[in-house]
Write a structure and sequence with these properties.
alpha/beta, 368 residues, single chain, 3-stranded antiparallel beta sheet, binds magnesium ion
Length: 368
């Protein structure tokens, strides 16, 4: 197998705010695995919160390429064990390699990945669309603009979460609402907040307290009127039994756990513990989102909207129609690269009414 990797710079349509940070662009890495005349693609979406950056990804890839150069691309389990032996942690980079291997296998066999994984694409749950933190009025405006999506995930962890949730509920009375505090609350704050927020009809809430605070998670779950899901507290397979008594469900993300193989293991481990499963994502291109979407038929909930937040998605793959995930039918991941010129045209159309995004884009183009 030969490996190649190139930068994948993504610009968001507008700044995306969560409790601990503001995101405007992401530096990802595109991984290509070639064996014979078939090429598999994967996307590394590193996040500093989990100890990875584009630099660490680029530093790790030659090590992983060396470890796998003589491997059979079909032997994904062995490839994954080989990556683990060579390098601890660094799950976003391993996810990119794992995605590329699954893409390669599907292309080699001529079947879509969901078919290989035993899923029924019609069984994929609808995805939520995420509303980032803004003023209550700003969040209500975004909720109305997102009327094509029947499920909204609302980012919280502000000085007045109740006002924000009230504004969104009155803007979208029919919507299914989920919330994500991204570790912002203390356990007691979380209980108080959720008792007040419950009147807006929350389906579930992600990660109310700090990632390491499992006792806090359990404290909240025992008192909360809203089901609790672990996201930051449940990154990898070994976290599943640790959080099992503290939450109602877990959020599985390829970039946190290392790809499709370990995500499958996490889904099965969660089932064994009686936990519900949400499939989540980072803000990433249609390449990484589509890789995760192939697992959606195995999940109870989906939050696979990262590509919808981009001004310049360079790939085309899974589509979202009324919140439904329409999985590709092409072989492997079924993802196609939009040509540079076509990408540019679409980007120009998409950002026509977004001055800040246009300025970002102009500076990128200006810098070549
Ligand atoms: Mg989350």
């Amino acid at each position: 197998m030969q490996f190649e990797f190139t930068d994948l710079n993504l610009t968001l349509r507008e700044p995306f705010v969560i409790a601990r940070e503001v995101q405007t662009r992401h530096r990802h890495v595109l991984v290509r695995v070639r064996d014979g005349d078939i090429e598999g693609l994967g996307e590394a979406a590193p996040r500093a919160f989990y100890g990875e950056t584009a630099e660490t990804v680029r530093a790790c890839l030659p090590l992983l390429a060396q470890a796998l150069q003589d491997s059979d691309p079909f032997a994904v389990e062995e490839a994954w064990a080989g990556m683990e032996r060579r390098l601890g942690g660094n799950h976003a980079v391993k996810a990119a390699v794992d995605e590329a291997l699954h893409d390669w296998i599907g292309k080699r066999l001529g079947v879509p990945l969901w078919h290989l994984l035993g899923g029924n694409p019609a069984a994929a749950p609808r995805t939520s669309y995420t509303i980032g933190i803004d003023t209550p009025e700003g969040m209500a405006r975004k909720a109305i603009a997102a009327r094509a999506y029947p499920i909204l995930k609302v980012k919280l962890g502000t000085e007045d979460d109740v006002a924000r949730m009230r504004a969104i509920r009155s803007a979208r009375p029919e919507a299914v609402l989920r919330a994500d505090a991204n570790t912002a609350w203390s356990p007691r704050q979380a209980v108080t907040s959720l008792e007040r927020l419950a009147e807006f009809g929350l389906e579930l809430v992600e990660q109310p307290v700090a990632a390491h605070d499992l006792a806090g998670l359990r404290f909240v779950r025992e008192r909360s009127p809203v089901p609790i899901f672990a996201d930051e507290s449940c990154a990898v397979l070994s976290d599943v039994p640790r959080v099992a008594e503290c939450v109602d469900g877990i959020v599985v993300k390829l970039s946190k756990c290392g790809g499709i193989r370990p995500a499958l293991a996490m889904i099965h481990a969660a089932r064994a513990q009686g936990l519900a499963v949400m499939l989540g994502c980072m803000t990433e291109s249609s390449l990484g989102i589509t890789a995760a979407a192939h697992l959606a038929p195995l999940a109870d909930y989906a939050d696979l909207d990262g590509h919808l937040l981009l001004a310049d998605d360079p790939f085309h793959g899974v589509e979202v129609v009324d919140g439904r995930l329409v999985l590709p039918t092409g072989p492997g991941l079924g993802v196609e690269r939009i040509s540079e010129s076509a990408n540019q045209q679409i980007t120009n159309q998409q950002i026509a009414n977004r001055p800040s995004a246009i300025e970002n884009r102009k500076s990128e183009i200006g810098n070549g």
